[in-house]
Amino acid sequence: MLKLKIKNLRFSIDKKEILKDISLEVPKGSFVGIIGPNGSGKSTLLKNIYRLYKPSSGNIILDNKDLSDMKDKDCAKQIAVLAQESNSQFDFTVEQIVKMGRYPYKSIFEDYSKTDLKMVKEMLQKVGLDEYNDRSFSNLSGGEKQRTLIARALVQNTDFLILDEPTNHLDIGYQIQLMDLIKSLNITTLSAIHDMNMASMYCDYLIVMKEGKVIDFGTVEDVITSQMLKEVFGVNAYIGKNPINNKLQVSYMHVHEHVNGVGCDHVHEDGFSGVHSHTV
Ligand SMILES: Nc1ncnc2c1ncn2[C@@H]1O[C@H](COP(=O)(O)OP(=O)(O)OP(=O)(O)O)[C@@H](O)[C@H]1O
Questions:
Q1: With a 6 A CB cut-off, is 164 part of the ligand 1 pocket?
Q2: Which of 22, 78, 140, 262 could form a disulfide with 9 if both were Cys (CB 3.0 to 4.6 A apart)?
Q3: C-beta of residue 183 within 8 angstroms of C-beta of residue 161
């Protein structure tokens, strides 16, 4: 069963085509990562899906309904978003920001219910901000802001989550905690992600983007290969397996570097990577 289907999506800004004929499918309940170099179009694709941008052509279909036919509030009951930019123009407290996640369920002037407040409290606890209710959002650290916005997305209680580099600003402890939390929700998740090891740990499928196009889609094992990392990101990598969780593990290597004249942690342009030395 499909949660999301995108057909021939094109998107341009100022006559520059940024997304070029994108078609993809996200299976229901899966965790799908979007990987690709800076500027490849990951955020722009997500913004088209969560309707910040309007596609130039093509269709975005969520649960068999065309998103362009949906009202904003209905859309917010179905898609929660953790976007990359978190600049707030106004000064809200942490609790006020998280409460905003309940807005799709409120009619105008309706106050927050006990259930709303309970959800807000629970999510703040889950992201480790239970003592932060009255703190001003604008004075928080980058990681605390990110955790507040995650809590806001989660109280929206949708069954589809869009994340744009969710672990941005988070220390490794919170990165793992956040990804575990999202994974435990078992809801369809589409996330732009830079860290290949995080992608390998949490994603069921990966979409690879390059220059505004989707160039590959598949399981982590199909997609994360040393050839792909070289072709798409221009880096050399050794890909092994973590013997405990059986997940792929990526370790990067210099293109050409020697310690005391001996090189052993890098590959040459012709692919040679054994221990060797140079006179120069
Ligand atoms: N509002 C805009 N006006 C003009 N160009 C834009 C705009 N938004 C994005 N772009 C361009 O579109 C391309 C794709 O940008 P996008 O932010 O989607 O890439 P990304 O893959 O998410 O990158 P990153 O990994 O750096 O976050 C870039 O070349 C970017 O400069």
A1: no
A2: 22
A3: no
Give pLDDT tens digits for 22-61.
Answer: 999 999 999 999 999 999 999 999 999 999 999 999 999 9
pTM reported for the whole predicted model: 0.88
240 lines ligand 1 (CB under 6 A): no
3: helix, strand or coil? strand
Amino acid at 146: Q
CATH class held by domain 2-219? alpha beta
Q: How far apart are CA 228 and CA 124, in angstroms?
A: 39
Residue 39 Cβ < 6 Å to ligand 1? yes
| 3-class SS of residue 69 | helix
Q: What ipTM is given for this predicted complex?
A: 0.97
Distance 225 CA to ligand 1 centre (A): 25
Q: Map out the domains of the chain as residue ranges.
A: 2-219, 225-280
Q: Output the CA–CA distances (angstroms, integers) from residue 205 to 79, 100, 103, 136, in the order listed.
A: 19, 31, 31, 38
Distance 120 CA to ligand 1 centre (A): 33
- In tens, the pLDDT along 190-215 reads 999 999 999 999 999 999 999 999 99
Answer yes or no: is the C-beta of 44 below 6 A from any ligand 1 atom.
yes
Ligand 1 contact, 42 CB (< 6 A): yes
| pLDDT reading at 20 higher than 80 | yes
Which stretches of the chain are assigned E, i.e. beta strand? Answer: 2-13, 16-27, 31-35, 57-62, 65-66, 80-82, 160-164, 188-192, 205-210, 213-219, 236-241, 248-253, 262-263, 276-277
- Using CA atoms, how far residue 209 sits from 31, 70, 181, 205, 237, in Å, is 17, 27, 26, 13, 19
* Distance between Cα 99 and ligand 1 center (Å): 30
